[in-house]
Amino acid sequence: MARQPAAGARDRILDVASRLFLEHGVHPVGLQQIIDECGCGKNLLYTHFASKDELVVAYLRRCRREWEAIIGQAIQQAGDSPAGQLVAVVRAVGGQVCDPGYRSSAARTRSPAPSPSPRRPSGPRRPSAQAASALTGSAEAAAFGPEPSLTTPITALGGTGEGQTTNYREQL
To answer: What residues form DSSP beta bridges with 32?
Structure first.
């Protein structure tokens, strides 16, 4: 009689792979590294995931389900008002990306490239709390305020994460 994998082995492998993918990117992490970190054998990993591609797909699906739950909860708590739902979604996303534990994009496939400039750090940039607050304020204004006109200045998040006001009417 063949041995059956322990219950939860697939989730344990996916947990380890997720952590490594977030820390190092998808491309640099090999299956052997996942096996070593997880403490499982190759046969167990290949029983649950036929290839690295299959493991990455499972990882991305998990990330999507997590984001769907966050956004769905925000919409549900906001009630029936579409404007309130928009603001709730922006707040939920802003709260996630400004959290110290947030690790950029799930789809990041490689380690950050070396910085071309000593003034600019390498790696994914994180939005500041000020940028998240400005974005939430913009969403609230768009949802609850008057209709914008072509002469209404639009706040854009600039490279520094600070709000920069631009009158796009002047550029038309």
So the answer is: none
